[in-house]
Amino acid sequence: MLLVFFALAMQTSTPKAGIANFDEYWKKRAEEAKEASREAYEPNPEKVAEHFNYEVHKSLEGGNSTRRNLGKYKGPCLATNPIDQCWRCDKNWAKNRKKLGGCALGFGRKTIGGMHGKYYRVTDPSDNDMVNPKPGTLRYGVIQDEPLWIIFAHDMAISLSEELMVASNKTIDGRGANVHIYNGAQITLQFVRNVIIHGIHIHGAKAGNGGMIRDSVDHYGFRSRSDGDGISIFGSTDIWIDHISMSNCEDGLIDAVMGSNAITISNCHFTKHNDVMLLGASDSYSGDSVMQITVAFNHFGRGLVQRMPRVRWGFVHVVNNDYTHWEMYAIGGSQHPTIISQGNRFIAPSDPACKETFM
Ligand SMILES: *[C@@H]1O[C@H](CO)[C@@H](O)[C@H](O)[C@H]1NC(C)=O
Ligand SMILES: *[C@@H]1O[C@H](CO)[C@@H](O)[C@H](O)[C@H]1NC(C)=O
């Protein structure tokens, strides 16, 4: 009896957020994900941060100043940082979409998404069948096994009925269309590797009720309620989130937890939200000490309260972000994380209690 109890206790301490039945399939994926995270771990993370800074300096060469112009700009296309300079302002970008796959810098720099795969066009904004999604929907594309570069046929607003379970080796590329993922469930990257999410709007994410949800061509299972994050990165490696506008989700805008690693979050615009970015959710989960994450060139804007980011355990390079609003604090950490904050601009609110960056 005691033994049975012990076994159950062990099981509840295994990470299984959302997975109601931690079956053989999920056990295997969790194992593979752990291995991927270990493999991506940089024993000298300072080198990666230095290389990032070197790329920034290089991109400023030829200018007269190392200061960035952070004012409002309405002129022709400008690419002001080395990530954007890699792809942006190319008149033929639509013919060279996959070039983006080589543009990530920082800890997520090896993320190529679906660069070596086919294109998949989302033509249908509906999201009605969680187990057998309709071809043409976003959900049908993201669960495929093969690498895919997912694009959108036209402007669309997609309200996810339940968590969108994105599989490995995918790019979601919203360029050329105005794509909103809104007022529905979250995007979940769970035990996956190599995903780019680029150029979409995510707002109003809510907790999903859970239920039977397909996560790959060969598997679906029962999932419990989802948190209502914008993007949940759970035990996943090589993830690049770039040019995403996010606001007003029920839980975090972006959470990276359970040993997720090799992540870059860049060029995003965050507004109207309380818990913005949580990197490591648990004081007791030391497995998060592998986490190595770059947060760069983002605008933390109007109506934000805290966690930009809030870090536990890991190593986070917070560089060249623009903080124009916060109501509690900007950057925070606990459980001896390493946070390197460089080249950020902080405009503190007038409230005297919000003047400092807490560490
Ligand atoms: C640098 O400054 C010089 C003198 O003010 C100016 O003529 C030149 O155009 C500037 N170069 C750039 C790239 O801004
Ligand atoms: C993703 O792509 C890589 C490289 O092609 C491949 O080795 C790996 O098995 C793929 N991952 C999945 C889960 O399909």
From TrEMBL:
Major subcellular site? secreted
Q: Where's the Pectate lyase domain? A: 155-352
Q: Which UniProt keywords apply?
A: Calcium, Cell wall, Glycoprotein, Lyase, Metal-binding, Secreted, Signal
Instruction: Report the EC code(s) recorded for this entry.
Output: 4.2.2.2
Q: Name one GO molecular function term.
A: metal ion binding
Q: Which Pfam families match?
A: Pec_lyase_N (PF04431), Pectate_lyase_4 (PF00544)
* CC cofactor note: Binds 1 Ca(2+) ion. Required for its activity.
Q: Specify the domain of life of the species encoding this protein.
A: Eukaryota
Q: In which pathway does it act?
A: Glycan metabolism; pectin degradation; 2-dehydro-3-deoxy-D-gluconate from pectin: step 2/5
SUPFAM superfamilies given for it? Pectin lyase-like (SSF51126)
Q: Which residues constitute the signal peptide according to the record? A: 1-17
Catalyzed reactions: Eliminative cleavage of (1->4)-alpha-D-galacturonan to give oligosaccharides with 4-deoxy-alpha-D-galact-4-enuronosyl groups at their non-reducing ends
Q: What enzyme category does the UniProt record give?
A: lyase
Query: What cofactor does this chain's UniProt record say it requires?
Result: Ca(2+)
| Subcellular location per the Swiss-Prot or TrEMBL entry | Secreted, Cell wall
Q: Which family does it belong to?
A: Belongs to the polysaccharide lyase 1 family.
Q: Give the PANTHER family listed for this entry.
A: PECTATE LYASE 18-RELATED, PECTATE LYASE 7-RELATED
Name used for this protein in its record: Pectate lyase
Question: From what organism does this protein derive?
Answer: Populus alba x Populus x berolinensis
Which lineage? Eukaryota, Viridiplantae, Streptophyta, Embryophyta, Tracheophyta
